[in-house]
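Issue 218. Parser rejects a valid record. Input:
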Amino acid sequence: MVSTVSHLPEAGNLDQEHIAAWLAALAGQRSQEEIHQLSRALDIVHQVHDEEPAFGGMQHRLALVQTADILDQLGLDTETLVVALLSDLPDTELELAEPFGERVQTMIRDLVRIRTVAVTGSTDTSDRQSENLRRMLLGLADDVRVVLVVLAKRLQLMRVLGSLEAEDQQRIADITQRIHAPLANRLGIWQIKWELEDLSLRVLHGEVYRQIADALEEKREEREQFIEQVIERLQEQCAQHGIAAEISGRPKHIYSIWRKMQRKSVDFDQIFDVRALRVLVDSVAQCYEVLGMVHGSWRPVPGEFDDYIAHPKANGYRSLHTAVIGDDGKPLEVQIRTREMHEHAECGVAAHWRYKEDGKGDAELERRIEWMRAWLEQPGEGDSGSEHSNAEFEARRIYVLTPDGRVVELPRGATAVDFAYAIHSSVGHRCRGARVDGKMISLTQPLESGQTVEVITVKEGGPSLDWLNFSSGYVVTSRARNRIRQWFKRQNYDQHVSLGKASLDREASRLGVEKPDLEQLLPKYNFKAVDDLYAAIGRGEVSAIQIANLQVGSTARDDDEEIVTKAERRISRHAGKGSQVVVQGVDDLMTHTARCCKPVPYDPIVGYITRGRGMTIHREDCSVVKRLRQDQAERLLPVTWGKDQSQGTFLADIQVYAHDRKGLLRDISSVFSNEEVDVLGVKTHTDRKKEKASMRFTTEVADMTQLSRVLEKLAQIPDVLEVRRQV
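Output the parser choked on:
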């Protein structure tokens, strides 16, 4: 149990004498500057809360100081105590925490969010909701110390719970048992865990609590005396055999006894570990040697021996457990393990909440808990606010709330569309907007832990094909993406064919390419008819961008037997250093792309042999090539794109039409910058009467995929009317 020092009253009012005595007690372990910081925080507490009563009639100031004192008993730093004192600052007065630094302010803001979530999300008592709420509290805290403040505040409240109405006591104790005690267990803060569990049990099952407490109290003196005698006797035997053993009585709190009685369906008299010892030694051999001493001194209880050293538990826990009958005829449990096993049991994965809560493994949650526990083991040696620590502690999942307080778990970066599909597929299909904490947001805006999300739906309708586009940013979860694909797949086939054809035509037009021969692509996608491929595009199963980028010339990259055979008949090579094309029937020929049509992989292309400049690569539909076919057809050679296009860049003209506004060019430039596309030239024209702008950008792109992605993002800029590749 974490005890409150005598300098603070258990109830009533907190006067200056109490505060002075408390600070004087802290001064023995903290610097003068730290005491000054705490004194300043107490002044703010007095200024803000004054005589304001806390929940249950206790003076608010006293409740806050008792919370800080609990954290002091746990050995937490002064920053954490300051945060505890200022933890109930109103939203309108958070600036009072500014003198204490950014980390203190951040922790207080996290506590404000947690305070809101705790009120909203704790009404649902289902196991899944309780688990999600526990995870949310871990996810909301950017500093492990915030979770400790939450637990200390809960422990302080539980200690004064008797002053509340019976209904409030039941409600608070139930939340504490479901949420806060398991959190303390996961973090390995046993003192808080045990007391929270016992205090909750006293409220929720008062009669059972009193029965067990009375049974323990009646035998406390007898039990303690017996334990001392056993320790002394076993210590002597270990010393005689040269074993440096560390032997201690293992306390059993009331809640733990009750849980075991429930789990095994037995009475109090059949609980063998009410009296228990733990023996720590240096080696495995010594474990078995001590076991022999125990069994040689006292009679073993049949069926109560477990060898978790030879046969460890699934979570890696290792120890010897046995129960014997003491000299007084009462059972005694003995646990024997090495110090390394004990450290693993107390701090490692074996100590995790899975065993006590009958939970299943969760790698991400365990990663986060392990980091917290590692910091708690040595809080004075690390800086929980350092960049490295925050990077380790950063949650990879978020937990958001529905308007009725249900917690929804999503991966970091998830959007309102992902949230809608997590609620129900029909909600996702009909989603058209979202409010976060009462404010409208974009459907592509990533959500954050602790937010309350309300989905705006229509009565009928379905998802947009744009939601399946990775670059659009509408969805990140596979659940949402699969539900969207399934919806499109279920729609009318003819409608899908029309939708897919229109989508492919639009994409090919925007990229400035001709549609590929779909008949040749059917084997690649395992379709029997062109309409089936169109329908797949319409359903979102195949990307229109991907098909538009596939040109006949690009099939030379495939491992198709017929294409390989054709390639063997050619005298082909990558012409010139760094060349990106394969020239058929010509050796040692320098190539360069034509500036008139600016071909990009994998446009259909043709080569033109110049006088003195090697070969110029044109698009097949280039107007210059059309004239050359009439006048100089003999100088045109078939060429294809090479397999490796990773080394070069290609010119591409992008035409943008938009409503003219301030900042338009800046927004367009930011897209190019984010996509790492160089802009070599810009031509702009503004129609002042119609307030419309026409802009043409000459860019360097790596391939058609990058060009397609840039066009997609440019089209999403507000006030942009049309974006296409200019050829």
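Fixed in the parser; the record now loads. Residues 166-187 form the longest helix (22 residues).
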